[in-house]
Amino acid sequence: MHLFLNLNTICVLIIAFLRIQVFPFPIQDGIPAFTVPQPDEAMNVLVEKASKLNVTLKVAEPLDAKLLNGLKLSLEGEHQYLNAGLAIALSSTWLQRTGHHEFTYLEQASPLPEQFIKGLTTASLQGRAQKVPDQYINAERYGDLVFYLDGAHSPESMEMCAKWFSLAVKEDSQKKAFNHPPQNNSGSTIELAQGNPNERDGKISMQILVFNCMSVRDPQLLLPRLMKACANHGVYFKKALFVPNTSVYYKVGSHALPTDSQVDLSWQLALQRVWENLIQSDKGGEAKHADAVCEEGKDDTKMGGSTCENSRVFPSLPLAIKWLRESVQQNQSVRYQVLVTGSLHLVGDVLRLVKM
């Protein structure tokens, strides 16, 4: 019997068989439990809960990159080595419990089975640390508008997203050019051509943020973590664009999308104020004066919304992408690197628009 495991398969196995448990789900008596390394406060709670239920609690260590035989995890970000370690522990335990002992992996000193390596180095997860060059840009400008997609929507994941984005844009700025997209229907991520780091095309890289989050989230926790983590890596956003999600209108019984003038932008305007306040505070100014740099409804391209010194609100995502594409055409010496984050809904909407 041949088993080819990837991370998606592992998730299916966990859900389907429910004979292994992963925190933070409720602990069940008699079922092995796994967690990744946690802060002491959290770990103490997990240990206490497991002890009361007579459950064996195992801590899955991060994957040692050396076990991949020179290959790289297909999912980017340092935190993915934590996820990979947990996935290995879960799949190994499930294989043992179902009699497939030839595929098990018990400790870091052991070599990983070939099937595990294949799964970890080929797994794909759209909307997480994903780079998508805009295919609507003409051939001469291809690679001048790139969307960096990550559906982070918690303070912790926002920080990891910022770190990934910061490292990715620096690496990409050192590369000479993008290859043209492959002519296939596999949906695989487009790879970048490796150029000589010393050869520059003379273009300036500009970072833009496209952001929205659900109203149940606290932007006062999300946006500062994002901004600070990027700044720690020397990355600063030239402009932040706040947009409503399109996908929320695709519901059972809905017949048409609302027009731009019908969309309630109060939440996006609130996000904009948070961002402008952060910028003003970072400059040493008083946050209460942030609104003074915004002029409601001022928009030279007649797109509506609200324009501020460091940000814009658009009444729809298509209008924001239209503005980005026009900016690329009007600024021949600039490469736009656009981080899209804050909501998996938003990331999905962008994917639908730029890859359709």
TrEMBL record:
Question: Care to name a GO molecular-function term for this sequence?
Answer: tetrahydrofolylpolyglutamate synthase activity
Q: Which InterPro entries match?
A: Folylpolyglutamate_synth (IPR001645), Mur-like_cat_sf (IPR036565), Mur_ligase_C_dom_sf (IPR036615)
Cofactor(s) this protein requires: a monovalent cation
**Which EC numbers does the record give?**
6.3.2.17
Query: Which reactions does this protein catalyse?
Result: (6S)-5,6,7,8-tetrahydrofolyl-(gamma-L-Glu)(n) + L-glutamate + ATP = (6S)-5,6,7,8-tetrahydrofolyl-(gamma-L-Glu)(n+1) + ADP + phosphate + H(+)
Q: Which UniProt keywords apply?
A: ATP-binding, Ligase, Magnesium, Metal-binding, Nucleotide-binding, One-carbon metabolism, Signal
Pathway given for this chain reads:
Cofactor biosynthesis; tetrahydrofolylpolyglutamate biosynthesis
Region (Disordered) spans which residues?
A: 175-197
In what ranges is there compositional bias, type Polar residues? 181-197
One CC-aspect GO term: mitochondrion
What is its EC class?
ligase
Q: GO annotations under biological process?
A: one-carbon metabolic process
This protein's superkingdom?
Eukaryota
Q: Is Magnesium tagged as a keyword?
A: yes
Signal peptide limits: 1-24
PANTHER family, per this entry? FOLYLPOLYGLUTAMATE SYNTHASE, FOLYLPOLYGLUTAMATE SYNTHASE-RELATED
Q: Which family does it belong to?
A: Belongs to the folylpolyglutamate synthase family.
Q: What is this protein called?
A: Folylpolyglutamate synthase
Native source organism of the sequence: Populus alba x Populus x berolinensis
